[in-house]
Design goal:
The protein is elongated and about 55 Å long. β5 and β6 form a beta hairpin. The strands form 3 sheets. The protein has an 8-stranded antiparallel β-sheet, with helices on both faces. Strands 11-10-9-12 form a 4-stranded antiparallel β-sheet. It has 4 helices and 15 strands. It is an alpha+beta fold and 208 residues long. The two termini are 25 Å apart. Helix content is 21%, strand content 40%. 26% of the residues are buried.
């Protein structure tokens, strides 16, 4: 579920993990995107929010080991029989709380929308062609009667039926990269676009 941070807003992006006796929920998120997955096979009592890079590094270090994870006083401590890792946690005051993220996912899952299925190969070909007009500014994808990327250096348009939405180019490319061969796109008004992934979904706020 990991997403790349938007460097203009923050140098890191959090992953929130909440495990209850009934299920587990994992999400990587910022103020514009939520990439999430859930499972009823993993149960227990645990909650943690940490940088995605930190979680990834911990999984690499403690691969195939039983671990104990503790959080508190701005620190994350992970212990196994062989290794102990302790790291400072960044301040997350400007980011949504994990509880709010879970509520947004729950609400978004219930929203009715316009659903389209587009071959991933068609979208990736469009992205490849669009790179010829990308500049330093963040580009926007406009989908209506086709799909268009326009910048100060030019415009690329393709006949792709994907619904009607406006979305950040980089956000859309990253979401599609995590999708299966048939990409499910669900547009909810002018609010957000949901992209189905291999393990869950990515919700991206539309440009206004």
């Amino acid at each position: 579920v990991a997403l790349r941070p938007t460097t203009l807003l923050s140098s890191w992006i959090p992953v929130g993990i909440k495990v209850t006796p009934k299920s587990a929920f994992v999400a990587c998120y910022d103020n514009q995107r939520i990439s999430w997955t859930s499972s009823k096979e993993t149960t227990g009592e645990f909650e943690c929010v940490a940088p995605a890079d930190t979680i990834s590094s911990i999984l690499d270090v403690f691969k195939d080991q039983g671990i104990k994870v503790e959080t508190g006083r701005g620190r994350l401590r992970v212990t196994s029989k062989m290794i102990t890792v302790s790291t400072m946690m960044p301040v997350e005051d400007d980011l949504p709380k994990l509880e709010d993220v879970m509520e947004k996912v729950k609400a978004a899952s219930k929203e009715a929308g316009d659903t389209k299925v587009v071959p991933k190969s068609v979208l990736t070909k469009f992205f490849d062609n669009a790179r010829s007009v990308l500049g330093k500014e963040r580009a926007e994808i406009v989908a209506d009667e086709g799909m268009t990327v326009q910048s100060s250096t030019g415009k690329v348009t393709a006949k792709i039926e994907a619904g009607t939405f406006k979305i950040d180019y980089e956000f859309f490319v990253e979401a599609v990269s995590k999708a299966p061969p048939d990409v499910m796109l669900r547009v909810v008004g002018d609010s957000f676009l949901s992209v189905g992934t291999q393990v869950g979904s990515i919700i991206v706020a539309q440009n206004q």
